Amino acid sequence: MAPQTLALNTHKAGMEGLDVEKINEILQKASEGSKFYHHKQKCQKRLDAKISEMLKFKSALTEEQIKKATLQMDRLIEELESSRDLTRTIVHVDMDMFYAAVEMRDDPNLRDKPMAVGGTGMLSTSNYAARKFGVRAAMPGFIGKKLCPELVIVPPDFTKYKAASKTVQEVFGEYDPNFCMMSLDEGYLDITDYIHDNGSRYSEYSEDDVSSENVASAIVREMRAKIQEKTQLTASAGIAPNTRLAKVCSDMNKPNGQFYLPPNREKILEFVATLPIRKVSGIGNVMEQQLKALEINVCSDLMEKRGPLRLIFSDLNYNHFLMIALGISDTRLDAWTERERKSISTETTFRGTNDRSFLVKQTEDLCRELVEDLIQKDILGKIFTLKIKTTDFQIKTRAHTFPEATCSLDVLMSTARRLLQHEMDASAQPLSLRLIGVRMSNLMSSAELGPSRQVTLTQMFSKSLSRTSQERKFSDSSTSSDTTKNLSEISGNHTRNTTTESKVSLSEKSCSFDKNNSKQRVTNKNFIEKFLVKSPMKLKPPKMKYDCPVCFQEIEVDSLDTINTHVDKCLESKTSSQVSGSSPVNVVPTDIEVIDICESDIAKHDSDEWKCKGNAKHVLCNNSLRERELGKNTKTSIDVNTEKYHSEGEEHVESAREKQALLCPVCKSESFENELNLNCHLDECLSLRTINDIMQSSTSPRMSHTSNDAGTSFFRTVQNYSQVCKPHPSDPPRKKQKISHNKSDT
DNA sequence: GGGCAGTTGAGGC
DNA sequence: TTCCAGCCTCAACTGCCC
Ligand SMILES: Cc1cn([C@H]2C[C@H](O)[C@@H](COP(=O)(O)OP(=O)(O)OP(=O)(O)O)O2)c(=O)[nH]c1=O
Ligand SMILES: [Mg+2]
């Protein structure tokens, strides 16, 4: 196998001057023959193939092509140079061996010993004594032990790390209120303004380059000293005119050191000239190998080989390469400071197994955790993704997009079950997994969803249709199913983290928790209730978008008739389409597929129930979190509270609907005083076969089967790209690169 | 052709 | 004796629909 596959990464701090040969031998021996090793081998082979394709492509390039591409790159360079900004002083601070340092601080016994934080499965980090043996982050504990038998492995304690991080952030805030944390242990600061306002305190000299260095360095030294004083932890820092350089610089004198790179073009180019490409954040193992194959080892090589690079890589990539070679990157942190979370997930690894019930249980537990997180953070998601890792380390993801954002446990759970089931069924051999994960993305806060924009069909059927959303808001807030009432009114003034989350959105609509978690029978009464009565729509008069409860298509409606007509048509077409079996729905076994339709695709529409129970859950979640901190049993409190709030919620729903006249969406001719009557009527109005059919036809997950085989390399068309790549604001220090070769180009 | 849904892969801490 | 995480972001790509 290529030496890079499992070999020790020596680009990280604390890896200098150790016996790499011996360490690699141990690593090799520890891994050989394992499934992990085989997987890595496969990956390496694929990469090797990709690289050899790339080299073949490169050797076919003509002098002419390269010359032209080089000239085009030169024009880009001019543009980049003209935009070079050397006016800011950016600092990157990175705590030294963070988790390990916290543990060592709290347990003096650990101080002189090689130690690591993590488990036998995986180490998160190690102290410098352990690094001397080659023990490092992302290394399994048992291998760490092989490298260093006396290694002490400490389990992580995130509460401590968060607390330490908070203290560090307080110090940061003194120097730049708009500092930007990239993780618990590192952040960027722009101290330009601080220097301007307070610089004189640090130096009596005038403002030439040398004194600038003195001032900035003195400030950062002071900041690091403050951090150490307050946390007993050391930090390293880099000072440079932009973020990428600052980041590289913070690694230069690690641990407990700092490095200053002056805002001077020549000095920067000098610095970059000998900088190994792997030191640059965003260049990882794969890109390093690709670039090395092109004889690019240090950043200045990127400049030298800019012609071929332009022809081989995507425009995003070669733009990025140029910026690295020139030592140019972001000088403003504004865009980074406002970053919002894009996904939330939880996953777990276990001994590989194909035990279906075990896998299903794991999935369900993960969903519970995820929902708890969502509720605690007061967010809903639109896309649910199931992640699985087979016992041979192949990772697969299966996603489902909901018509509306949700955080309902029922919905997530049934979706997860369905996706998992589908994979199990699709697998030739019994699906054997070692990891399952669940993720929600396309997030929005419950406030963003806007309570006034959610309305049930019940409400729609009533006269409220003609009211403006504002009127509805007012009037709704006077009912007991008040959707605008925020969480604190219901739960009391519970604490909420507002320091880092500027967006404070209290729960106006959340989800039902563990409601009818047991398998349930699907009756057409349920069906009507879930599909028709509680389906929400967006109120956007005069034309409104509305998700049809039958076909799930979004339809534009301007009157009740439009909807009824559409629903009629849908139901008719469903009835006439082929029907599989004729078993009455209410005796359909409690099969996952059946639950799916009614839960995952419809239950999310239970907006009224959500509001009430959602708030309740939110309350109990916060309670449970508090209890957890106090070391109490959380499960009990959840159960007790759920019960209580649940019933309250039901009452709200009832009272809110009591007086509304209802119209049958199928025959249109009847009106009913309450939902029960309507449902009874609809039982007859719709045939069981129809319902069954509808459910059957909407259960299979939508999947795109992409044959995205990264092993087949293609080459990009030689095109003229002259635009400067605008760095994505939400993607600060790193920029992923990928060869994008389109065969058609050659 | 643009936009959306879905999948995979690279990368970082 | 066995044994390789869990959280996150972004880019590239395919297929489908409008
Ligand atoms: C690299 C890495 C870090 N972490 C955690 C543990 C680290 O203490 C923390 C910060 O990461 P790093 O800053 O990369 O590492 P470090 O602080 O432990 O050591 P250094 O002195 O080189 O900065 O993030 C992981 O959980 N997994 C990883 O793969
Ligand atoms: Mg660190």
UniProtKB/TrEMBL annotation:
Its main location: nucleus. NCBIfam families: PRK02406.1. GO terms for molecular function: damaged DNA binding; DNA-directed DNA polymerase activity; zinc ion binding. One of its GO terms (cellular component) is nucleus. It is found in: Nucleus. Keywords: Coiled coil, DNA damage, DNA repair, DNA replication, DNA-binding, DNA-directed DNA polymerase, Magnesium, Metal-binding, Mutator protein, Nucleotidyltransferase, Nucleus, Transferase, Zinc, Zinc-finger. Residues 90-284 form the UmuC domain. Belongs to the DNA polymerase type-Y family. SUPFAM superfamilies: DNA/RNA polymerases (SSF56672), Lesion bypass DNA polymerase (Y-family), little finger domain (SSF100879). This is DNA polymerase kappa. The keyword Nucleus applies. Its EC number is 2.7.7.7. Its cofactor is Mg(2+). Residues 59-86 form a coiled coil. CDD domains: PolY_Pol_IV_kappa (cd03586). It comes from Halocaridina rubra. Residues 485-517 have a biased composition (Polar residues). Gene3D superfamilies: 1.10.150.810, 3.30.70.270, 3.40.1170.60, 5' to 3' exonuclease, C-terminal subdomain, Classic Zinc Finger, DNA polymerase, Y-family, little finger domain. InterPro entries: DNA/RNA_pol_sf, DNA_pol_Y-fam_lit_finger_sf, DNA_pol_Y-fam_little_finger, DNA_polymerase-Y, DNApol_IV, Rad18_UBZ4, Rev_trsase/Diguanyl_cyclase, UmuC. Residues 735-746 have a biased composition (Basic residues). PROSITE patterns: UMUC (PS50173). The keyword Coiled coil applies.
